[in-house]
Amino acid sequence: MSSSRFNTVFGAMIMGAALCALVLPPTAMDRVRKNADLALLPVAKPTRAIAGMFARRYGAKTLPPGETVRPTDQQLALENSDLKQQVTFLSHQIKELRLVEDERKRLGPLLQYFKPVTVIGGDSTPGRESLSIMPASGIDTAAGTAVMCPEGVVGRLTDARRVRLITDPGFKITAQFGRWSEGVWSTIDTEKAACTGIGNGTMRIDNLTMKQVEGLKASDWVCVGEDTDFPPVIHGLSFAQIETIRPMPAKPLFAEIIVKPRIDLRKLSEVMVMRK
User: Where does residue 170 fall: left (phi above 0), alpha (psi -120 to 50 degrees), or beta otherwise?
Assistant: First the structure.
């Protein structure tokens, strides 16, 4: 077909389309469209059937109720990794809870007098040693209330939310001494010892002479004395161990005994506060 003839036919088609769209009424075009659909039916029907067959075989299928799409290998790998992390986290939590429970059991009968309370954090004031605790019901919130942990005495409440540690500078406990020997506990007779906190997780005893401490040695236990205002239920309980014994530089006749709790009280996550 020559270009001039093609242009003539193409122009006629354009004019016809414009005539159908702008001049002829819609009802007339509907009749023509129906006839065109009938004319194309021999081609359209088998084409639609073939397309439907491919869609049923290869297209997305509707799953029965309760079934889900099978995940890909990459999705399964990610899901397995998440589950492993959750198992590790939960296992660690279970281990910590078991340790806490074991520590509480070490208190034995004392647990009926004290209630576990969560520690929020330590004291940010330089030179001071105390802990902030969560609000709790059923505890004695009066200033001076005894606070413990499985390792022994922790300190006293200064108010309902703060515990002053025994290692805080100036904290005083009347103390006595004891020792484990081949599984047998024995009390060491000495004069009353004034144990005072000096900070940095440490306490000091400096009111006894070198002669009075001749029977003591490093690793002996320091216990709550009976001549103290702590509750009677914790009298005799150990709270620290002797670290060093030496003559005081300024007063050589007197001993300087440095003692430390077995654990760093500033890092406790839970304490036991005396119940009402």
Answer: left
pTM of the model: 0.62
Return the bridge partners of 131, or none.
122, 163
Contact 188, 223 (CB under 8 A): no
Taking the C-alpha atoms of residue 125 and residue 170, their distance in angstroms, rounded to an integer, is 15
Per residue in 213-242, pLDDT tens? 999 999 999 999 987 888 888 898 889 999
Q: Which two tokens stand for residue 167?
A: 């290692």
Is-contact 259 245, C-beta < 8 A?
Answer: no
Q: What are phi and psi of 192, to 5 degrees?
A: -60, 130
Q: What is the pLDDT of residue 61?
A: 63
β-strand pairing of 270-274 with 146-149: antiparallel
Sign of CA dihedral 211, 212, 213, 216: positive
Parse the chain into domains and list their residue ranges: 3-58, 68-106, 115-274
Query: Among residues 197, 180, 178, which one has the least CA distance to residue 188?
Result: 178
Strands (E), the chain: 114-122, 130-133, 146-149, 152-159, 162-165, 172-181, 184-199, 202-205, 221-224, 238-247, 255-260, 270-274
